[in-house]
Amino acid sequence: MASGRTHRPATRSRGIPEATVARLPLYLRALTGLSERSVPTVSSEELAAAAGVNSAKLRKDFSYLGSYGTRGVGYDVEYLVYQISRELGLTQDWPVVIVGIGNLGAALANYGGFASRGFRVAALIDADPAMAGKQVAGIAVQHSDGLEKIISDNGVSIGVITTPPSVAQQVCDRLVAAGVTSILNFAPTVLSVPDGVDVRKVDLSIELQILAFHEQRKAGEEAALNEAAALAAPVGRADSTDQGPDGDVPAVMPA
Amino acid sequence: MASGRTHRPATRSRGIPEATVARLPLYLRALTGLSERSVPTVSSEELAAAAGVNSAKLRKDFSYLGSYGTRGVGYDVEYLVYQISRELGLTQDWPVVIVGIGNLGAALANYGGFASRGFRVAALIDADPAMAGKQVAGIAVQHSDGLEKIISDNGVSIGVITTPPSVAQQVCDRLVAAGVTSILNFAPTVLSVPDGVDVRKVDLSIELQILAFHEQRKAGEEAALNEAAALAAPVGRADSTDQGPDGDVPAVMPA
DNA sequence: ATGTCTTTGTGAACGCGTGCACAAAGATGG
DNA sequence: CCATCTTTGTGCACGCGTTCACAAAGACAT
Ligand SMILES: NC(=O)c1ccc[n+]([C@@H]2O[C@H](COP(=O)([O-])OP(=O)(O)OC[C@H]3O[C@@H](n4cnc5c(N)ncnc54)[C@H](O)[C@@H]3O)[C@@H](O)[C@H]2O)c1
Ligand SMILES: NC(=O)c1ccc[n+]([C@@H]2O[C@H](COP(=O)([O-])OP(=O)(O)OC[C@H]3O[C@@H](n4cnc5c(N)ncnc54)[C@H](O)[C@@H]3O)[C@@H](O)[C@H]2O)c1
Asked: Which of A51, A209, A211, B66 would bridge B182 by S-S if both were Cys, CB 3.0 to 4.6 A apart?
C-alpha cells in the first residue's frame, strides 16, 4: 500500500477475508470468557451476541476456517478457541519490541493484556540516554544504539512505535532494516514501508475527530428538528450548504 | 447496532460516507503540515501522497464536501483546512472526560495532541479514593461519585473509558445516563449502548493479533516456498487444511 | 429406525467503497 | 482573444463485505 507497484492481493491469503481476520480476535475473546465459565458449546446466535456482531456474519466467518460446528448443537468452545488461536498464529510466541518509552510506551509496557496472548515484550528501547538502564514494568530500558542487535538476537518480527512523530519514520526504517516485518504505529504519521511489511496504526486523535463529526451531526439534526418545529416556514437562504451556526464561508481560516 | 431495532442509516448523514469521514482527519493533518510551511496550494496528487491515499479517492472525498478546488491549480490549503475543520466540528470546543486514571488514562491525560484540535480535557475521573485530588497532567483527579454533575456542568458529550474491562460497561452506562453521546473505549469489552450513542473502540490486543496473523502467513508462505523448492513432489496428505508445523487437529485444546 | 426440531453452512442479492479514465473547467502564455 | 496545458470532478465498472433466507445436517426423543 505504501510504495507497492506489485499490487499484492494484500490479504486474500488463501481465502480468509481481511474483515473476517479483524473479527477473529473478537470471537476469541468471547470464547475465552465462555471457556473460563466452563461452557461446553455455544450457538452462533449466542456467540454473535457476546461478540456484538450479526450471527450470519459469524457463521460465514467461521466457514472460512472450515466446518467446525455441529448442526442442531452449535460450536465446541474449546475446539473453536484452539482453531482460532492457531489461525491467528497465537499458538506460538511473538516477541515484540516497544520503541519510545515515554508516557504511552511505558503504559503499554505495563499492560498485562500483552502477555496474555502469546505476545512477549522482548525489549524496551529509547533514544534518551537518561532512560537507558531504568526499569519499566520490570524490564530494563535499552538504548536505541543496540536496536539492530536486540531485534536479530531475539528474532523480533513485530515492533511497536511510540516515539514522537518527528522520528517515527526513521525509527520505522531502522526496524524494517533490522528485520521487523510488522509494525504497530501510535505516532500520528503516515509511515512508508517496503512491500511485505505490514503497518497498522492506532490514532487517538483521528478517533476523537470522527466522534466529533457524528456528535456535531447529532446536534445539528436536533437543532434542525427544533427549528423546524418552531417556525414551519422554509428558510430559503443561499444554496444548500447550510451548516448551523456558521453564517458565511471566509476564504481564509481565522488564525 | 447494539440494541437497535430502528435500523438507522448509521452514517450516511447527508451524503458523506463513513469511509470518507475517517479519512478527513488524515487530510487535515497533512494540510496542517503544509499550512505551517506556508504552502499556498496543493494538487490532489501531492496531498494524496502526503496522506498516503489514492488521489482519485481524495478528490472524490472532497467532492462530498463541495467543489473547493480550482482546476489546473489545485486546492487552497488554508481554505481546505477551514472547510474540513468545520465539517468535522473542530471549530468548536469539545470537552471530554477520561474515566479510569491508571497507566493508560494518565498517558492520555498527558498527551499534548489532545488540546491541539478542539478537544479539551474537562475532567479526570477515577473510582480509587486514593487518586482523588492527585494532580495528573496539571488536572486534579476527581472521584467518580461526582461523575454526573461533572458531565452536566461542563456540557461533556464525549467520554473516554480507560478503566479495567470488568467495570467498563457500568461506567459506560453512567456516562450515557449523564448525557454523554460519544464514547471512546480502550477497555477490551463489547459495550452496548442505546441508539443515538456512538462508540469507537481502540484495542491494542486486536491490532497485535491481526499483525500476528499476517506475520504467520508470511512465514508460512516463505516456508512453503522453500519446501516446494526442496522437494518438488506434491505431499498429498489429508485434505487441504494443511497449516505448517501442526500435524493433526486435536478435539480439545491442550491446557 | 423414524420423525421432529434445532442450528449450521452457504447461495444469492444488495450496497458500499475503490480506482480507472476522461470530459469539462479554468489558468496561463502568446 | 485564442490555444494549450494542467488538474479537478465524476460516470462507470468492479470487487468486497454484509445480510437474508433456506436447504441440508445432525441431535434427540419416541
Ligand atoms: N500519550 C498518549 O496518550 C498518546 C496518544 C496518542 C498518540 N500518541 C503518540 O504516541 C507517541 C508517544 O507519545 P508519548 O506521550 O508517550 O510521548 P513522550 O514524549 O512521553 O515519549 C516519547 C519517547 O520517545 C523517545 N524517543 C525520542 N526519539 C526517539 C528515537 N529516535 N528512538 C527511540 N526513542 C525515542 C523519547 O525519549 C521519549 O521517551 C507520540 O507520537 C504521540 O503523538 C500518544
Ligand atoms: N495500559 C495499556 O497499554 C493498555 C493497552 C490496551 C488496553 N488497555 C486497557 O485499558 C484499560 C486501562 O488500562 P490500564 O493499564 O491503565 O489499567 P490500570 O489498572 O492502570 O488503570 C485502571 C484505572 O481505572 C480505575 N477504576 C477502576 N474502576 C473504576 C470505576 N468503576 N470508575 C472509575 N475508575 C475506575 C482504577 O482505579 C485505575 O486507576 C484496561 O481495560 C486495559 O485492558 C490498556
From this structure: A211
